[in-house]
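Re: beginner question about structure tokens

> Can someone show what the tokenized structure looks like for a real chain? I only ever see the sequence side.

Sure, here's an example I had lying around. Input first:
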Amino acid sequence: MTDQAISAPPIDEKSRFSHSPISPRFGSELEGVTLLEMTDDEVGALKQLGAERGVLVVRNQIMTMDQQAAFAHRLGELTTYPVKKTGSLPERPARTVGNPC
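And the corresponding structure tokens:
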């Protein structure tokens, strides 16, 4: 096995981006895509690729928290989990003391 990435063709005829496998069986890095500009067909292809490869890496995406949430909703129903369990110790904020540099 080599360290060189294997470039794959576009996900399907309707998508304008391609991906490179991170490893032979797991993960892909998408190239040439801006998530916020994806069509519904491209989001569908992205979901299929995620189901097949497990992890997708898409670098250099600039979006607000609201845009991120809206895009996540395009991928499907969101599941949230409570950060703090009932009966656990209270959460405390982190604090930096001294010069952080």
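Each token stands for a local structural state, so reading them left to right follows the chain. The longest strand covers residues 18-21.
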